[in-house]
Amino acid sequence: MSAAAATRLQHDQNRADRWEGNLDADHPSDPSERIRFYDYHPAPADVRAEVLEGLSRPQKRLPPKLFYDRRGSQLFDAITELPEYYPTRTEIGILSERGAEIAELLGRHKVLIELGSGSSLKIQTLLAALQPQVYVPVDISREHLLASAQTLAARFTWLHIRAACADYSAPFTLPLESHWSNLTAFFPGSSIGNFDPQDALRFLQRVAQMLGQGGRLLIGVDLRKQPELLHAAYNDAQGVTADFNLNLLVRINRELDADFDLDAFEHRAFFNADKSRVEMHLISLRDQKVHVGGQGFSFARGESIHTECSYKYGIQDFHALAADAGFRPERVWTDSDQRFSVHALRVI
């Protein structure tokens, strides 16, 4: 954590002391009085280093977390509403239909952490069912996070929110109290699929350590299915996913003084059957040279920047991964078409 972030955290903690004194009894009517914001957002220098390192690889890569600036978050929200994109509505359907069962298993009135909260659409079903004492949304998009926190605090007038702007894919410290126990985390959207298998294992191990023995994780996992359905979901007819992918270059141009020509790249997504993952790429349409942060990078025609993976799992395969990370699988819920799954895991 940077010194500036540490100073902001201490400032917010001082303001929160009285609020923390009696969460059950103190429910201010003003939503903003029930929200505390903690900024662990990566510094620009960190983003620059990641981009330069990724573009220097033989297979150029950019981390998918960079998708989520303000515009990228808006585009992703639009993707979730597309007819071809099944994961969001399928997961929400499972949560809605099985909410009572999930609440019975996880328990109510606890601390609920959401990793990658986005627009907080899915969490609303869980908030109503679990009625947590404190909700801790974590997201890398500051504007999206603040707007969602305000919306949720206005809708759930009993809810206290500690919003943390952070990169959950890297180690960081959440604003949690030492006396809180039986923590529950929610990791929706099959975002676990964006990690390569070894990175997924390390991420789940960090989550298990954060939650502690007996803590629970509710996680969405996309299942293996026909390649035609996957192709349609990541190559929508309206081109919203293409805009989402290309917006990554818009952000780099803006934040890192780069000169990517958007007309010289195109979106491409396909299912890699050997690795059981959808891959998203930005393909160079000509031989060209691009400058980023004062460094030059050459592209041959047809060369790509790999921007995202989305691994698809079998249920037993995912259970094996979770067990290796220190979790015991407790329950799994799927839709009737077996497209998507929601797993309840408990830290051993």
Description:
The chain has 348 residues and is of the alpha/beta class. The protein folds into two domains: 46-75 and 228-311, no CATH class; 82-169 and 180-225 and 313-347, Vaccinia Virus protein VP39 (Rossmann fold). Helices cover 38% and strands 24% of the residues. The protein contains eleven helices and 14 strands. Strands 1-5-4-3-6-7-14-13 form an eight-stranded mixed β-sheet, with helices on both faces. Strand 13 and strand 14 (340-347) form a beta hairpin. Helix 3 runs antiparallel to helix 10 (240-256) and helix 5 (99-106) packs across helix 6. The radius of gyration is 20 Å and the shape is globular. It starts with a helix and ends with a strand. Keywords: Methyltransferase, Transferase. This is Histidine-specific methyltransferase SAM-dependent domain-containing protein. GO terms for molecular function: methyltransferase activity. Residues 9-33 have a biased composition (Basic and acidic residues). It holds the Pfam family Methyltransf_33.
Features:
4-stranded mixed β-sheet; 11 helices; 2 domains; methyltransferase activity; 14 strands; disordered N terminus; MeTrfase_EgtD-like; EgtD_Methyltrsf_superfamily
What's the number of helices?
11
CATH architecture verdict of the largest domain: 3-Layer(aba) Sandwich
The CATH class assignment of the largest domain is: Alpha Beta
Question: β content, as a range?
Answer: 15-25%
Strand order of the largest sheet: 1-5-4-3-6-7-14-13
Weakly predicted, low-confidence segments: 1-25
How many separate structural domains? 2
The chain-level mean pLDDT equals 90
Structural class: alpha/beta
Q: Which bin fits the share of residues in helices?
A: 25-40%
The CATH H-level superfamily of the largest domain is Vaccinia Virus protein VP39
In one word, what is the shape? globular
The count of strands amounts to 14
> Major sheet, described briefly?
8 strands, mixed
Order of SSEs: HEHEHHHEHEHEEHEHHEEEEEHEE
Question: Taking Cα atoms only, what radius of gyration do you get, to the nearest Å?
Answer: 20 Å
Distance between the termini: 29 Å
CATH fold call of the largest domain: Rossmann fold
